[in-house]
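Predict structure. Chain length: 541.
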Amino acid sequence: MKTATTRAIAGAARTPTRTLYDLCEARGRLDGRIVKKVRDLARENRAIAAVAGAAFAVHLYTNPSYGYFTDELYYLACSRHLAWGYVDQPPLVALMAWLVRVTLGQSLWAIRLLPAIADAGEVALTALITREVGGGLFAQVLAGLCVLCAPGILTVDSFSSMNAFEPLIWLGCAWLVIRMIKSGNTRLWIWFGVLAGIGLENKYSMLIFGAGVVIGLMLTAQRKLLWTPWLLMGGAIAFAIFLPNLVWNIQHHFPFLELQANIRRSGRDVELSPASFLFQEFQAMHPLAAPVWVAGLWFFFGTVRGRPYRALGWAWIFTAIVVVTMSPRIYYLFPAFPLLFAGGGVIGEGLLRWRAIRAAYATAIVATAALLAPLTIPLVAPENYIRYSRWLHISQPKIENHRLGPLPQMFADRFGWPEMAQTVAGVYNGLPAEVRAKTAIFCQNYGQAGAIDLYGPKYGLPAAISGHQSYFLWGPRDYTGESMIVLNDRKERLEQLFTSVEKVAHVDHPYSMPYQHFDVYYCRGLRGSLAQLWPKVKNWD
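Prediction complete.
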């Protein structure tokens, strides 16, 4: 059988000289277009790398600032108790903390390296999706800059948590859907299943976005992508990856659901009306970037170019409705916004045709983001942050209904931990050696316990015990309760439990959360055994 090339050569051999000349000229033009396309692609890649590199550099510069965030202390503790699940999250974040800890150590720079890489990846993947849906160089740069400059995304990615990695997984799934739409290659459902399974091991909200994608496809002409065995295979793969955590939850009676019910009952989280929620999203995504993500909605629902990808627009709508209905924290919707920035970048490229206007708009976003940056990431000393925030009359939004000190909670929860551990060490090391061996350190929350576990070894402290979250599952170890150092409790309550209660220290730090200012008690003679009392110390809130 003759190939296309063979037939073309044979045909050319039978054509007159003028026709051969035309063919060569046409091939030259084609080669020229290919060369131009390659050059344009290389230029776009350099631009994407520059924006993503800027995101990485910002975090690399600020990562060692302030101290460990309370959740980071907890994840490090979880990494010392590897399991298929924890009370308040799936296992992936603890596994990543373990990998970093055993390879790079547990310094601030080390544990925040992966979130910095994830933020850069989020910027790059947003730009690549913009390219996939038809955006040129300016559209890709604009979408990437919007992600880079979003105050909320900067804040969430400035410390180690599952929230830093969730956008990468969502965007990866969206990119696979776009490739399926463009190529018809439904085998990509296999990789979608892999990513979705990993996403479920990272954070359960993967279920929301995954359901949004399926519903979005069902509502559009792209529903044909669903009628394939490859979707079932991808779903099976996702389920298989998620299965160990599901089994763990069944064995432990789904503690995450109990925790969420307790949080709603306690009123710990700030409740927002839909209007207030959207206004905070408007602020968190950068006010000047709002036209871009709003245009992104228009791209998916109001343009011919965006119509093939409308399923992703429906996925965003579904996710937003579920998140707002659940009345959660504002950062739950952050991973979905890069999709809108991608679509909005395409619209912006079409509307802003003059280079001067494009440059002015991009510069305005970057310049105002630089002005807001000290309010979102640990860029300046705390005292300078306080003065700057008061001067601008702007602060981070409240997430929980706790009384605040001079710093917002996302900053305040990074202060006071080493000083607290040192204070406790002074009490512990003041006890006789034979008493220290049987003295437990009981903490009220995982931040306190995680700080003891991180800073305590250099002072000779034992691992902490606590009833908070997964610390409750780790139990009282071998302690009996005959000698205990108790943090942050009421003396009247302790006197009902112990025969002797003595206030021995006070923990205070000017920049820490006010609820982390507390007394330390030395207690002896627990009435009953600690193992018997343990079910009553459970605190899943």
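Summary: Strands lie at 439-443, 465-466, 483-487, 498-507, 518-526.
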